[in-house]
Amino acid sequence: MTNWVLHLIDAGGYWGIFVLMVLENVFPPIPSELIMGIGGIRVGQGRLDMVPLLMAGTAGTTMGNYVWYLIGWKLGFTRLKPLIDRFGRWATLEWRDVEALNRLFARRGQAIVFVFRFMPALRTMVSLPAGLFRMGHVRFLLWTAAGALIWNVILAYAGFVLGANFKEIDRYIGPAATATVALAIAFYIYRLITWRPSSQTD
């Protein structure tokens, strides 16, 4: 994966960074840590500048998240009820859980979107409920961009400081991402087995 990311960054420059960050947020297995880290390395080598790098990375992150937000917006809160009634068992959700999430996003939506930008896997997934529960477009974009900018600054400067050695992190990113996905699947299976609707537990 490192060679592919390197090739696209070197061939496309800031546009390559932008495209990769869009893809990273639409298809989360592509690690932003690697993309922005290599971008930081290229800054240290004098082949890119830090401010345009951060602008391209943040714009790509925001755009990728906006795709999932728009999917949630298009589906909509009211259209969700028939799906929950029919498939809620597999999502381990009841409609009252969805209503509680809706109230939570109404009160703390911007904070949720901002904080989740720093969490592996969840940082993209949070965009879908933000759209479902009709968080405002401008609020979503601003808070997503704010969280993404901070995260991208950390990653890019890590690459800038560590230099070429940053590529060694790719050896750990892959297994770490796999472990995160495996834990999420294991948690889902456990919840699926143990979950009971309130009508059975009352």
TrEMBL record:
Q: Domain named VTT: which ranges?
A: 30-159
InterPro entries, sorted? DedA_domain, VTT_dom
Keyword vocabulary terms for this entry: Cell membrane, Membrane, Transmembrane, Transmembrane helix
The way this protein sits in the membrane is described as: Multi-pass membrane protein
Instruction: Tell me yes or no: is ATP-binding among this UniProt entry's keywords.
Output: no
Q: Where does this one sit in the cell?
A: Cell membrane
GO-annotated cellular components: plasma membrane
Which superkingdom is the protein from? Bacteria
State if Protein biosynthesis is listed as a keyword: no
Transmembrane domains' residue ranges? 12-30, 51-71, 111-133, 140-160, 172-190
* Family annotation (PANTHER family): ALKALINE PHOSPHATASE LIKE PROTEIN (PTHR42709), UNDECAPRENYL PHOSPHATE TRANSPORTER A (PTHR42709:SF6)
Its recorded name reads DedA family protein
| Source taxonomy | Bacteria, Pseudomonadati, Pseudomonadota, Alphaproteobacteria, Sphingomonadales
